[in-house]
Amino acid sequence: MTDFDVHPEHVAPPEPPVNPAAHAKHPEHQVLRVFCGPGGGGGNALGVVLDGAAVPGRTERAALAAELGFSETVFLDDAARGTVDIHTPSVRLPFAGHPLVGLAWLLRDLGRPPRTLRPPAGEVAVTYDGEITWVRGRAEWVTARRTERYASVTDVDALPAPPPGEGWLYAWAWQDEAAGVVRARAFPRRGDAIVEDEATGAAALLLTHELGRPLDIRQGTGSQILTRPHPDGTIEVGGRVRADTP
Q1: Could you read off the pLDDT of 182-191 as tens digits, one per residue?
Q2: Does the predicted model carry a pTM greater than 0.85?
Q3: How far apart, in whole angstroms, are the C-alpha atoms of residue 173 and residue 162?
Q4: 113-116 — which CB contacts under 8 Å span 24+ positions?
Q5: 147-175 pLDDT, tens digit each
């Protein structure tokens, strides 16, 4: 098995604000909420370590990501090149939308917006449009997961967390097909602490690839993910980000 032959991932609904005192022993890190709704609610918690050198080993990074317990934690290894490393509580990922959108937003907020980020999968272009931060990736970068269409939003909302079965499941239904609005929930079913992913950019990118159209995805308890495909086969994933403060 390679580093990226991973099993489905699980991500819990939005997590409460983090108490910095509870993590005093951890390397310095920021906590963001990524893919927030229009009013700033929702969003998936993300850990960001801006000084990747503070956690140099893969084993140490995996342990920190597991201890923080967010759906992903991202480590910035080379600020000039935009080289990053992404970990869930149980696996390392070659690409994920939520940590890249969050990191790109944070770097702009710090006065150094990147034009490109470089996770293991490849070069990810970054753009900004008002409060929306966009990153561009490819469907083939998304680790194994399955999308399943349900008959109605009610059916999606009625699913237990997680539904029976194995493997990463992205359950969705049209909320307004003409407008491209989707209701979705994400269940990694990977065996770690993440039962339901509040907002997952990689799954949104995959669904956009399958449907071949821009989408406005309403996921979890209040998150919004925007997507738009391009003629070269790349797909942009975008959303709002907020700092998670006590």
Answers
A1: 999 999 998 8
A2: yes
A3: 17
A4: 114/82, 116/82
A5: 999 999 999 999 999 999 999 999 999 99
Q: What's the DSSP call for residue 232?
A: T
Distance, in Å, from the CA atom of 125 to the CA atom of 104, rounded to the nearest integer, reads 10
- Tokens representing residue 104 in the block: 């790109």
pLDDT greater than 60 at residue 236: yes
Residues 6+ apart with CB under 8 A from 148: 169, 170, 171, 172
17 forms bridges with which residues in the sheet?
none
What is the Cα–Cα distance from 109 to 184, expressed in whole angstroms? 29
92-105 residue pLDDT tens: 999 999 999 999 99
Find all residues with CB under 8 Å of 107, minimum gap 6, and list them: 79, 113, 114
pLDDT of residue 9: 39
Q: What's the CA gap between 233 and 212, in Å, rounded? A: 10
Identify whether the C-beta of residue 219 lies closer than 8 Å to the C-beta of residue 12.
no
Q: Which amino acid is at 1?
A: M
Tokens in use for 220?
A: 């979890």
Kindly tell me the burial class for residue 190, based on how many C-beta atoms sit within 10 Å of its own C-beta (0-12, 13-18, 19 or more).
Answer: buried
